Every structure is written in structure tokens, then in C-alpha cells.
Amino acid sequence: MPRTYEGMLDAKGFRFGLVVGRFNDLITGRLVEGALDCLSRHGALDDEITIVKVPGSWEIPLVAERLAGSGKVDAVIGLGVLIRGATPHFDYIAAETAKGLAHVGLSKGIPVSFGVLTCDTLEQALERSGAKAGNKGWQAAQAAIEMVQLYRTLGD
Ligand code: DLZ
Q: Is 42 a catalytic residue?
């Protein structure tokens, strides 16, 4: 029988850092609500959750790195909403936000969830923040819970 490792969905005793872009805050607010709902339903305490707001998605990795290196959180959840405009601006920010968050996880050695929507339209963003396509904030928090548990299970 192969030895198989998986993280349980139990957030009790873990500390989470949410880094939230304020740009498109109609939607990012819904992602935060989803993430907090997921964390509390899985046993995380409000006292163990830190929320840091930043201007936009571009700034999320910078603050995620700071939190991840602080020793004060067990996982970071990045939440932002990018909506494509008329210029290539979106592509630059989306690519760097994704790369930046991946880099933070790899370099700091703690789980970092990617809860950044990259949408063509406001409608797509609404659908992914609590309407017909679920809530990406909730899913990002769920991945963070599973990953902190997995890290604990795998040990050093
Ligand atoms: C400037 C900008 C634009 C045009 N669009 C978005 C967006 O759709 N979503 C988002 O999170 N942030 C956007 N920003 C702001 C940038 O992320 C960043 O905050 C600014 O360029 C300042 O560094």
C-alpha cells in the first residue's frame, strides 16, 4: 500500500494572512467575505486572521512576502480582481501578480493561495465572487487550509 499524504480541512490552530487589493473593491470585498466564511467554517478564529489591504493586485505579492516572512502567519491568501481593459496593462499586472505570489510561496516555504481573478468582464468577476461560478475567495482559503495541514503532516 503506497504511503499517501493529504491535508485535512481543519483550520483550527492555524494563522492566516489575507492580502487584499482595493482595486475593484466591489468584488474583492466579496472574495474576502468568501475567504472568511471558509476559514471560520473550518475552525479558524478571528484572532488568528490578519487582513492587509493594498492598492491593487500589483502590490499583493510585495505584502504577501512581508507577511510570509514575519513568522506570524502559517499561510497567505492573496485576493484581487483584475478586469481586462482596452490596453495591455491587465496582462502585465496579471502575469507579475501570479509570478510574484508563486515566488513568495517558494522562497518563504509557506503555502500561498492565488485568489486573484483575471477576468475579461465585470460580469465574469461577479460570477466568480459569489454568483453562479462560486466564490474564488472561498476556494483560495480552502486550498490554504488544506496546504497548512499538508505541510504539518509532511513535517520538515
Ligand atoms: C492600475 C490598475 C488597473 C488599470 N487595473 C487594475 C485591476 O483591474 N485590478 C487591480 O487589482 N489593480 C488594477 N490597477 C492597479 C494596480 O494593481 C496597482 O495598484 C497600480 O498600478 C499602482 O501600483
A: no
How many separate domains does the chain show? 1
Q: Tell me the per-residue pLDDT of 77-124, one tens digit each, with 9 for 90 and over.
A: 999 999 998 888 999 999 999 999 999 999 999 999 999 999 999 999
Asked if residue 93 has its Cβ within 6 Å of ligand 1, the reply is yes
In a domain, 156, yes or no: no
Cβ–ligand 1 distance for 119 under 6 Å, the answer no
Per residue in 33-65, pLDDT (tens digit) is 999 999 999 999 999 999 999 999 999 999 999
- Going across the sheet that includes 112-119, the strands are 49-54, 16-21, 75-83, 112-119
- Strands (DSSP E) found in 88-147: 112-119, 129-131, 134-135
Q: Look up the domain containing 125 and give its range.
A: 16-146
Residue 54 belongs to a domain with what CATH number? Answer: 3.40.50.960
